[in-house]
Predict the structure.
Amino acid sequence: MVCSQNEWLTSNEIGMSLGCNPEHARRICKNLYLTGELERQQRPSGGGRPLWVYGVKTFPT
């Protein structure tokens, strides 16, 4: 999977494209975010848990 710098994906979308369990993809994305490898943004949800999307970390300009 090649992700452009303007493309933000949910962990479920990442898991489906890689062919792995969505929960496993969520844990990996969270760990990559905590180590500074990915960026994360919160999107509005219709209630319940917040929807997080992940993207490539870029250097601030």
In short: The chain is about 35% helix and 25% strand. Helices lie at 11-18, 22-34. The beta strands are 9-10, 38-43, 51-56. The longest helix spans residues 22-34.
